[in-house]
Records
---
Amino acid sequence: MSTYEFGSFRLDVERLLLLHRSEPVPLGPKVVETLLALIEHPGEVLPKNQLIDRIWPEGYVEEANLAQNIYVLRKTLRSLASLDAIETVPRRGYRFSAGVRYVERPAAVPPAASRRRWIGASVAAAFALVAVVFVSLGAAHRSNVAGLSAEGARTYEIGRYYWNLRTRIGVERSLVYFEQIIRTDPRDARGYAALADANAIMGDYRYGSAPPRVYFSRARSYAQLALTLDPNSSEAHAALGLIDMDGKNLNDAIGELQRAIALDPANGPAHEWYGVALIRQSNLRAAFAQLQVAGELDPLSVSTSAWLGNAAYLDRHFNEAIAYSRQALDLSPQRTDVLPTIGEAYEAEGNFSRAIDAYNQYAASCSYCRAEASALLAHAYANQHRVQEARTQLAYAMMHERDVIPTDLAAAAAAVGDRTIALELLRRMRGQMELLSVQNDPRFDMLRGDAGFRQLTQAG
């Protein structure tokens, strides 16, 4: 077995597994491989293009993906051991500056045919990494398992794993597991709080056959049951916060989420939803800070990565927006809802061809995405001065207005020169929290000098 040791860390080369004081550190394989590439050449400056070719030989990726990996590694090394070991050398690349020791130990079993490619890793290595992923996905709730029966604790962890995927199948499966906890541990608040979370997500994501209000009503009932059993249930207060946020009761939502965080500062979803609420208040700096805390608590949370991408875009950090959104897509290829953020960030950078590619991918991803993608494409085409194509796409989006986010329709209308229509679309949103995001959205820069636009957004 080959390992590299530095400080209190050990990197297992065969398994692509980083350990800190013999405990696995929950990092994805591409992040660990970035670290491996650096520590194989301690003290040397590795150019960015060399690292990208090494870590992503399967095809082209953005430099922002490498920057995101470096960011995660720095944050991990600092948080676990106060170690600043990765230096940025301007206009050149990165250098690993800590002392490294290479150790070759006799292997108990023959090494896998390929030592560094995840696809060619041994079954044992894959199993170990899945275990790390599972631990990470449940990390924000780890302390909440104590006190459940052995069967209830295991069921809870499996349910949280599926719930954290945020896919329709995943959330529906989590409902089944959380219902089992009610049977094994009927007097424990955690099963009811988990059911509140799952039903809230069913409503928030518009999953299931029932209207969202049905799922939100169920979620509130379960949260209240949980609070009857345990008035200090952080998860129940967080679920109520999400329900209030969807019900447009932003002040109540913030109060519940702050209460949830005070009760359990390690409640990752509470930090995430609090970050979302702050985005809707246009408090982007505080929102990004809360989302970063959520990401640190649960680095493999798909939804947190997606929201970090959204917050970075609104705060005009476009490279970060692309990196976070691609990270969400890497973690869960079903999360195609991040493609619009990727496209909007590329547009803001002036890279319209990549933006259009992202929008076309989104259009093909689901039956109801076509109309939304048309509004996005209309904006991109208009900025490329492809006026006829822009108007054709906008006309299709207007014909299917019910399937399109109003702000995207308004942005497209403004881009093709129909400012009156754009302002009317925004006027219909008066009082809706979503209108607040327009204050920061780069697509509306062209309207910021319009008195009607200022009045609408300030009153929103």
---
Amino acid sequence: MVGISLLTLVPGVVGGSETYARELIRALARVGELDYRVFVPEIAADAADGLPQTTVTAYRARRSLPGRLTAMTLAAAHPGPVRRQLDLDHLSGLHFPLTVMVPSVRRPPAATTILDLQHELFPRFFSRPELAYRRLAYRRSVRASRLIVAISAHVKETIVERLGVEPERVRVIHLGVDLARFRPVERERKPFLLYPANRWPHKNHERLFEAFALIRGERPDLTLVLTGAGHDGRPVPSGVVVRGHVPSDDLLELYRSASALVFPSLYEGFGQPPIEAMACGCPVAASHAGALREVCGDAARYFDPTSPRAIADAVLDVLAQPDEWTARGIARAALFTWDECARKHDELYRELGGD
């Protein structure tokens, strides 16, 4: 039996990693060929979503950042109660999809997914305590793992270079998109650009605002719609609409309605929103940073995210040729499915268990 630990899942907080964890579980329920048990915290008791589960009450999950750090620290310092509820003796392998191995285990053999190593490349974006914690937790997790999942070749390269991990221990498994849900519909697109991202430093909102002023010089009819957390009380330029955190159905409608997605991130371990937008037929202008070129292929118009002029020019280009970029995007998104992601995880689990 393969164990999958979602103990550090905090619903609505951990962003793309939550999407990955939940969609992986759903896809394993559809196409997986092994026996699984999902270990969940009390605050995410629904996360197993059809697979057999154990709610680990010994893990003191909390929603706040201090509470989350305290829960992980306690589980690392006093792992016995959590380990007992994980029933380790009956598992052939244990997977930690959410980057941090909590608690640390040596038996059964474990795998950890690394979704990004932003702190290694952009340490200035983190407070000193958070940076210290990430460096300690990530290195400890990869050292204790027999195998490591990287969600892109870019992430694998960083793991090997920055953490000193042997390349043969790392498996690249791309994320997916729900193509039954994220699909185009026949409707006229509205005059707005979309950027779905929490207002974190690497998401590069300030340069986007500069670029948007340039865009409006040529397209004064356009607005810029922002979704995600962290915008409350922070000023935005004229023409920018802050929607904040929106339900997934609302985001889907935005993908289907926007004239284009603009994605100026300075770092991405994968880049889920561009692929979701492409699947919905939304043209994409994206940064060339991180894994975005690897993921988006020839289906995005790329730009230098440090140059507002380059961002503006890329957006204007896709707006001038929307049909071409829409067709490329739909074809590209079709290459990424959660079922394929799940099948590759099954291969990893078999390798982990020695089958």
---
Amino acid sequence: MHFEILVEGQSERTALEPLLTKILGGYRDPHTWRIHKHRGVGVLPTDPALRPDPRNPSLLHNLPSKLRAYAKSLGGDEVVIVLLDLDDRPDCRAFKQELANLLALCNPIPRCKFRIAIEELEAWYFGDRLALVAAYPLADVEVLDTYVQDSQCGTWEKLADAIFPGGHVALKAKGRNQCLEQKRLWARDICPRMDIGNNESPSFKSFRDAIRDCALVGA
């Protein structure tokens, strides 16, 4: 099976590179994948049938067009996986249905699964405390203990409070680019250490199992 995986940005790509190997095995043994990063999540276009603005490289803005393109190009042993953060959206099911409705605009309908990290990808790191502490042994355990798994609580900010000097306030003061770079470093440091069979994040397990199910179909 070949996986076309669409993600919001570099930190997600950095996270998935080791995680996919853990889930699927070695590249070309037998599965393959490509991870396509974007510049942020963006918003869905008002008219998804229109051609996207080339000046807007965000994921949601380009998603309808990309799904239509995949509908025409995917082979029988290929699948699209779209990974997004829930962020502050109040209803995960409604958001997922909104994404699924885009498939109805495609002819034919491509094989595609939408998976949503709740609230953010950093929830997956909280789901494996051993990996997180192995990567950051000076992490503030008291802060880690206040996190409720897959809750909408300012997830990356709470992680910053646990492992970044000065917490999220100090990190935000450095600006958006430094925040994004720090998120990439967390992905680099934590994900190679994660045990994919023992993760407490429901949204991670949903992503993992979707990949596994697709791989079994293509086996």
